[in-house]
Amino acid sequence: MTKVLCTGTFDLLHKGHLNYFEQAKKLGNHLIVVVARDKTIEKERGILPIYNEKERLKKIAEQKNVDKARLGHEEDKLKVVEEERPDIILLGYDQKINKKELSKKLAQRGLHPKILRAKAYKSEQYKSSLLKKLINKVSLICIC
User: Fold this and answer.
1) In this structure, what is the dihedral angle of CA atoms 60, 23, 93, 10, given to the nearest 10 degrees?
2) pLDDT on residue 110
3) DSSP H helical segments within 1-144, as ranges?
4) Number of domains comprising the chain
5) What is the structure's pLDDT at 121?
């Protein structure tokens, strides 16, 4: 069994996310999706997601290509990799993670998964930050 792991916030689930899961599933036969914790997102971005971690986890678990959905760890993001021991980690095309640095940190823990980066899927249309900006504009229009 080839285990593939991918991670993300997955707030406002969209076709770009679904394509990410499709790309990941093609790399193996068991897809594990790790959903970022609310506290982690707030710490890194300074804001909470629109949907809480339980809602996002539930939505991810319902997706056809996802074999297992789980929450990440708040204190140690790499602990989930130790626990799941994937053969492949597929990073999102826009995730700000250095593949070499990640590989080095995992090797220090005795882990050596192949680390790949997903291809963008219509990034001019399906990018969470763009969708959130659009929602904010619509909200402002509705208030006025």
Assistant:
1) -10
2) 98
3) 15-26, 38-45, 53-61, 79-84, 99-107, 128-143
4) 1
5) 84
